[in-house]
């Protein structure tokens, strides 16, 4: 996989640009960027821009998921001479000096190997896999439903057991109170009968005395 980035008519002489180009040829993109960032020359700034553009072109053409900047390397760097702008500088005694403002064209080529694509399976196999996945999903849904039912049934059973226990306790309390009341009534009746018998005996004794 190769990608190219070009810049034309850079206001820089080809000689100065080639001095920096020799530093990054055949190096990985990350290492080349580090070299350019710490190179104290004006040509390094322009070359770093073009290198970033080449790496971005490579990743956009393939995709960032398959290709990363770490997998790229600088394969070729071309510095071509462009037309020079001729100017003059006036000097003393009517003389003129010739000024040549040189330009250049910069081209950087980057290459890298993207990750291999996964082999696509046929439609039948996919259908089978889909059917198996559906069966697995239905089984998981059933299990989740049963677990949810069991979870909901457990608190219901606990509540029913609590209600039954409370009813039993209430019935026991009512039975105890009934038994106590019956015992109290029986004791009251016995005392009343005993008093009656005593009164009757006293009356009979008084009558005997009078006679």
Question: Could you explain the architecture of this structure?
Answer:
The protein is an alpha+beta fold and 211 residues long. The chain has a domain at 2-112: Ribosomal Protein L22, Chain A, CATH 3.90.470. It has 4 helices and 5 strands; from the N terminus they run E-H-H-H-E-E-E-E-H. The longest helix has 88 residues, at 123-210. It starts with a strand and ends with a helix.
The CATH homology group name of the domain at 2-112: Ribosomal protein L22/L17
Instruction: List the quaternary state of the chains.
Output: single chain
Q: Provide the structure class.
A: alpha+beta
What is the overall shape?
rod-shaped
Rg, rounded, reads 54 Å
| Order of helix and strand elements from N to C terminus | EHHHEEEEH
Strand order of the largest sheet: 1-5-2
Strand content: 15-25%
N-to-C span: 148 Å
Key words describing this protein structure:
Ribosomal Protein L22, Chain A; alpha+beta; two-stranded antiparallel sheet; about 20% strand; about 210 residues
Short structural description:
The chain is of the alpha+beta class and 211 residues long.
Question: How is the secondary structure organized here?
Answer:
Layout: E1 2-10, H1 14-24, H2 29-37, H3 42-62, E2 72-81, E3 85-90, E4 96-101, E5 104-112, H4 123-210
Antiparallel strand pairs: 1-5, 2-5, 3-4
Helix pairs in contact: 2-3
